[in-house]
Design a protein that fits this description.
Layout: H1 2-26, H2 33-56, H3 63-76, H4 89-117, H5 125-154, H6 160-163, H7 167-170
Helix pairs in contact: 1-2, 1-3, 1-4, 2-5, 4-5
Length: 172
């Protein structure tokens, strides 16, 4: 069961890495670009952490699931977005929402693995605490960027308490 669980999360992590890399590339010269670039690196690092967990627990990687995660992200790009030949502001909102869900799922996995680490010497409880803290920071950053994208797409005013926390890191 644990092997299936970890490989499912690895497939999701693979899709998440692809999505955040694309978001970071598309927003390189826009507000939030630096934050997305940082997230892209951290999320890739988190995927590597998950691979380390699989190795520590002698769980073989299900390459077909990893490939399906990669391909699923590519297919997800084909969703209708209200525009035929250009990127819609709606795409940014939806993709940031998907990243937020992925980060919450990853945090759940870290919490589950932390409970196992209490009884499994191959796993380090403290490492999962660090990963959980990073996931919480990532979720906050993605939510800030999502709110700004929603305002750009739909109008309105962003709640300053959501958008100003860490805004100095998001400029660029």
């Amino acid at each position: 069961m644990l092997g299936v669980y970890l490989n499912d999360h690895l497939a999701g992590a693979t899709a998440g890495v692809e999505l955040i890399k694309r978001l970071a590339g598309e927003n390189r010269d826009r507000a939030g670009g630096q934050a997305l670039a940082r997230l892209a690196q951290e999320i890739a690092d988190d995927r590597d952490e998950l691979l380390d967990v699989l190795a520590a627990l002698d769980v073989p990687v299900s390459h077909y699931k990893t490939w399906m995660g990669w391909a699923g992200e590519k297919v997800g790009r084909l969703k209708p977005n209200g525009r035929l030949f250009s990127r819609s502001p709606l795409s940014q909102v939806i993709e940031l929402e998907m990243m937020g869900l992925g980060i919450e799922g990853k945090a759940s996995a870290w919490r589950s693995l932390r409970t196992r680490a209490a009884e499994d010497a191959r796993l380090d409880e403290d490492r999962f605490d660090v990963l959980l803290d990073r996931a919480h920071r990532q979720a906050e950053t993605v939510e800030r960027l999502r709110v700004l994208a929603a305002v750009a797409a739909f109008g309105g005013t962003a709640d300053p308490s959501v958008t100003t926390h860490g805004a100095e890191e998001d400029r660029g």
